[in-house]
Amino acid sequence: MNNDTYSQNQPLAVEASGLVKVFGKQHAVDGVDLAIPQGTVYGFLGPNGAGKTTTIKMLATLLRPDEGQARVMGHDLLKEPDAVRNRVSLTGQFASIDEDLSGIENLILIARLMGYSWRTSKKRASELLDAFGLLDAAKRQVKKYSGGMRRRIDIAASMVVRPDLLFLDEPTTGLDPRSRNQIWDIVRALVGTGTTVLLTTQYLDEADQLADRIAVIDHGKIIAEGTSGELKASVGSGVLHVRLLDPAMRAEAQKLLIEVLDTPVHLSSDPAALSAQLSETNRAAQALNALDAKHIKVSEFSLGQPSLDEVFLTLTGKPADNTDKKEGVRE
Amino acid sequence: MSTENAQTKQDKMKSALVEQSRPARPNGLITSLTFAWRALLKIKYVPEQLLDVTFFPVMFTLMFTYLFGGALAGSTNEYLQFLLPGILVQTVVFTTVYTGVALNTDISQGTFDRFRSLPIWSPSPLVGALIADAFRYTIASIIVIILGLVLGFRPSGGIIGIVLGIVLILIFAFSLSWIFTVIGLLLQTPKSVMGISMTLLFPFTFASNIFVDPATMPSWLRAFVNANPVSILTTAVRGLMRGRASVGEMGLVLLSSAILIIIFAPITMYLYRNKR
Predict the structure, then answer these.
(1) How many domains in chain A?
(2) How far apart are CA A197 and CA A168, in angstroms?
(3) How many domains does chain B contain in total?
(4) pLDDT tens figures, B198-232
(5) Which chain B residue lies closest to A84 (C-alpha atoms)?
(6) What sequence ranges are listed for the domain ABC transporter (chain A) (predicted)?
(7) Residue from A100, A181, A193 to probe the interface with B (highest B Cβ count within 10 Å)
(8) Residue A318 within a domain
(9) What's the domain range around B193?
C-alpha cells in the first residue's frame, strides 16, 4: 500500500490493521489495512461478495472483527464501541429506514433517538426533507418512494446529527443516471461540511467521480490502493471497444490490433466485438486506421474508461466474480 | 433547472448540514418510548394488524362458548364464567408472536442495522417494541372483557379482579416475548418466525386448562397441563377474577415470568449484538 502521500500528522478517520472476519470457513475479510484521512472520500471498489459490506459493518461496530484492530475517529473499535457510534452513521445497501412509515416520521424517529425534543425533531426533519428535495413526499410512506428518493431519505436520516464519518454502502446501485447524479451532489456537499465519507461501489466511474482514494477489494483483500489517477495508470488510460461489420473478420482484426497496439486484445461475448486496453488514448486512431487499411469494416467503436471488469482483469488476471450472492468469499 | 435554483438548493443543503447543535444523549426510557411510538404509528398504516387482537378473540370466545359450552359445562353461561379468563390468556399469548415477527422484519429491511449503529441504550428497540405490544394486549383484553360482559360474564372479583388479572397477563406476555425475540433473531424470514412460533405455542395453549378442567385427562397429559406455565397463568387469572386469588398462584406466575426473562433476555441481547 502506498501511504506516502499522506502527511504524517494528518488526523485519520479510520486506522485499521489486519482486520479479519470469518463466516464459517469463508474469510469474508482477510487482513485489511486502512488509513483514511479525515475530510476525504474513500472508495471501496469491488464486486459483490468481495468483503466491502463486511468491512463497513465491522467499522460501524455492527460486527466484531475476528482478528485485527481499528481506531475510528480516534476511538478504539473494540474498547469504545459507544464512542465510535457517537461519531459515525451508516447508510446500508438496502434502505435502512422504516418503509412502513412516512419520510418525515422516519426523520423524526431518528431525531428523537439522537436526543432532540419533539419540536426540534419536527423542525430538523422538515429542514432535511427540504434540503434533500423530499418536502413534497414528506407524508408519503417510504415504500412508495422511487429508488432515488429512498436513497436520499436514507442519507438524510444519517444527517439528522451530522456524523464525522459516514458509511455509504453502494449508494447508487440500481439508480437511474439522474438520481445517481443527485446522490453524487449530496456526497460532495457532505464532504464540503467536513464529514469523512467511506463509500462502497461496484462502479469505477463512481469511485473516480467521488473518491480521493480508492481501495480495490477482492476476496476479502485489498489488491490495489491509490488515487483514481494512480489506479488508472496501472490499468491503462482507457479501453477501445470495436464492433466489426463482419464477425468472420474478428480473428484477423485481433491479430492486427495486437500488432498495432502492442497490448492484449480481448474477444467479447458478442461474436463481432473485441476490446483492448490502451496505454495512451491517441493510440485509438492508429488502431482504427490500421483496420481501415486492411479493409476490415467497423460498425461501432468507443473509447471508454476501464470498467470494473477490466480493472479486475488487469489487477488479478481474471474477471470479477460478480455473482449475486451475499457478502462472503468462496474458497 | 436554472442556475439560481441550483444555487438555492445548494444553500439549503449546506445550511441543513452545517447549522445544528448536537443534542445531549437521551436516556434509555426516552429512546424506548420513541421506539414504542414508532410501532404504534405502524397501526395507522397497517390497521389489519389489529385484526388478531380484535377479530380472533371475538371469534374464539363465541365459537367455544356456543359450540362447546353446553356440552362441556352443562350450560353456555356457566362455561363462559370458566372460559373467559382463559380466552384472555390465549389471545394475549398468541399475540406475543408478533414481537418476533416485527423484529425479523426490521432485520430483513435493514432498519435493524441503523438502529444498532446509533449511540443509544442498545436494548431500547426491543423494549420499545414490547411497550407497544403491551398496548395491543391491553386493547385485546378490553375487547374480550367487554364481549364477555355482554354475553353474561359476571366475575365476582369485580373490576379490581379484572384489572389485576389483565396486569398479570401483561407481565407474563412481556416475559414470554423474549422467546420470540430469540426466534426472530435466529430465523431468516418473518414467515418462518410466524410458522415456528405458532407451532411452539399450539401445544402450550391447547394442552392447558384454558378450555377444560384437566381432571378428566390421562395422568401423563395432566402432569404436562398442570406444569404448563399457560395453565399456571390461567389458574391465577381465574382466581383474581373470581375474587379468590391465592398468593401462591400469583407467585408461580411471577416466578415463571422471571425465569423466562432470565433465560431468554440475555440470549436475545447476545444475538442482537452479534447478528451478522
Answers:
(1) 2
(2) 7
(3) 1
(4) 999 999 988 999 988 888 899 999 999 999 999 99
(5) B119
(6) 14-244
(7) A100
(8) no
(9) 27-274
